[in-house]
Amino acid sequence: MYTPELVQELRGHEWLRKLRTEIATSASGFSHPSREEEEWRYSPIDKLELGRFTPVLSKPLIMPNDAKKKSDGFHTISTVDGYLLSHDQLDTYDVHSVSDLEEPIEFETPADMLGSMNLAFSPDPVLIRVPRGSRVDLPLIIDHRWEKESAACFPLIRIEIEESAEIEIVEIFHHAEVDSLIVPETKIVIGNGSNVNYQQVQNLGPNVWQLGTLDVSVGQQANFHGAIAAIGGSYARLKTNCCLDGRGASGKVSAIYHGNGDQVLDFRTHQKHVARDTQSDLLFKGILDDESTSIYTGLIHVHNEASGTNAFQTNRTLKLCDRAWAESVPNLEIENNDVKCSHASTVSPVDEDQRFYLESRGVPTLDAEKLIVRGFLQEVVSSLPVEAINGWIADLFNQKLDTRATYGQ
């Protein structure tokens, strides 16, 4: 199904075709992910049947008006099933389909099977370059949609931000009523002195599996403020790596999530401090209803040369139903004594005193619970990095919360 011969059907110049073949060949040397591995512990990855999904090898026949949702408030890049369909081209950044590039660009060698599959079978890798000193005036929306049933899709986005630039990026994985597997990878390289705000919105359909990676490297005196909002998918996993490579680099990552039904929302984070005087701050807050599950495992890794590190990690989960389940495993690995690091994790039901206080003032039980949940999430919602879409994200969560018909048991 995922053979080296199959990648030859994808469009691209000779260097890219050769790279795809090499990576597809090496992928056969990796074992299938297993929950016996620490990286996949607690997950349902053993239920993944790759043979059920077929890579999309031809560009979807989508009319331009359907592909491009133009807005005066944003710059837009649109993809369908991993193919680049349209984009706004400005002087402040460049967008390229890697398949069109005659000169090769370097890609890191993938370390596992899924990374290899993404690089080998991504039909239209997208390269975005923000030149030195640029200020992108409006948020850049990367709009991913899905059309094909029983498809395996491999979106690959690479964003290179040169020195002293500023940009806001929103990556949206839209709802779709298809049974599909998506394996997206987004790589962001932030140059010295640059500032990047990044927001990912995962609003996938109920039958979609997502096995995603967000990989960020931050240069000297540069800042990354990223956030994830996740409400969709059957099994939706995102592995976030934030590597602080330059002295004085800062990385802040937050997330809000809401699971219901039998959803599994899975987050793995790695705060990697390589250089001196770096800072990272992580805050993940979520709510679980029905028989849904959340998984959080996080690692703060402070390297030997990273003196002066300040690193914080917090995961808090609120259960609306006794049948919901949460795994939360924070970890520290510290190789230098001159650091400040802490981690915290809680899993708890709705506070009975808060509920009683509202009920005693005439608020019905279900409405009281909704008010408590909204207050619980507000700490993250109010500080999401791309302000222009914060209201929309709040509406998505409110709509899902409003579907609760009865008080959880």
Strand/helix succession? HHEHEEEHEEEEEEEEEEEEEEEEEEHHH
Our count of helices gives: 7
- According to DSSP, the number of beta strands is 22
> What is the straight-line distance between the termini?
44 Å
Structural class: alpha/beta
Largest sheet: 12 strands, mixed
Number of domains: 1
Please provide a written account of the structure.
- There is one protein chain.
- The protein has one domain (4-350).
- The chain has seven helices and 22 strands.
- The protein has helices spanning 4-7, 14-27, 64-67, 113-121, 352-359, 365-381, 390-402; strands at residues 54-55, 75-80, 83-87, 94-97, 126-130, 140-145, 151-153, 156-161, 166-173, 181-182, 185-190, 195-202, 209-218, 223-230, 235-244, 250-259, 264-273, 279-288, 293-302, 309-319, 325-334, 339-349.
- Strand 2 and strand 3 form a beta hairpin.
- The radius of gyration is 21 Å and the shape is globular.
- The N and C termini lie far apart (44 Å).
- The model is unreliable at 64-70 (pLDDT under 50).
